[in-house]
């Protein structure tokens, strides 16, 4: 009986353990059943279609996303300029200017008879008076000035040799021109022809000379051409020069020799330099006996006329036999017309009052007496001093 009673007491304990085990097994069974179902749902989702090489890469067909446009921004303002550094305080501006007056005076010294330039003068030979007060000349140097000249050329159908000599002489003079020279080219035969008016364009002068190829008339009206040229240059201020290149013969002019000589004498500030043509051919004809008495007289008269025109105006006359003498001839002419003394001094009156100061230049020797000149034979030579008679002083700069 005791044994049976113990078995009955153990029965409720076993029943409780069985219930707990049953619950655990039920939970495990549910977990096993639900897991395959979730895996199956994942497998049922459609996979994206695989792309082929012909179709290109796969793209998303969803909606197009447009980014919001940025609002335009105003350009940045340029940086402010650097502030100027002012050395003076309070932005005050001060200036200092010192004017030391210096006068540069151009002086020409020429012999009255030949109008040749007198070289070799020193600072001690120049006495400069400004308003009657002697000035101290600090420097003297020789400079070359531009010229205003007319090339008056005989161009007629009388002789090939005369034309060739004229062309050679005019070309040598043309090559000696400088940029500041003003030159006019005039030719004459029966009439006077202006090839170019006064110009400082050397190319224009050269082109005018190149047209001298085929002459027109054989007559040479030199007196008429020279009269017209003198009348033309008399309207120009300053000193002018006429380079007369020709045979010197006059065949059919309306004017006589006396009238043209009176015109030459009455025309101021004009110097004539004469260059004869045909000297070589005349010498050959005379040496061979082909020049008769009348022709010889005509040649001598023509040469004398050219020489007279030059001597009356203080110029020079040349009659070259050969072309090789032309460079030396025009070098001598250039020395006569271009050279000038440039004097520099500080005026004793330093006021900048704008007044006119009168100037007078005198040549003196070492003892301060008027300078005397003489030729190789001891004969006195008269000379002229060409300089401006005054200048206006500067005004004070406020």
From TrEMBL:
Q: Output the superkingdom of the source species.
A: Bacteria
Signal peptide range: 1-40
Which ranges carry the VWFA domain? Answer: 106-333
Which terms are listed as keywords in the entry? Signal
Q: Where is this region: Disordered?
A: 39-90
- Does the keyword section mention Disulfide bond? no
TM ranges are none
Instruction: Please verify whether the record's keywords include Lipid metabolism.
Output: no
Its protein name is VWFA-related domain-containing protein
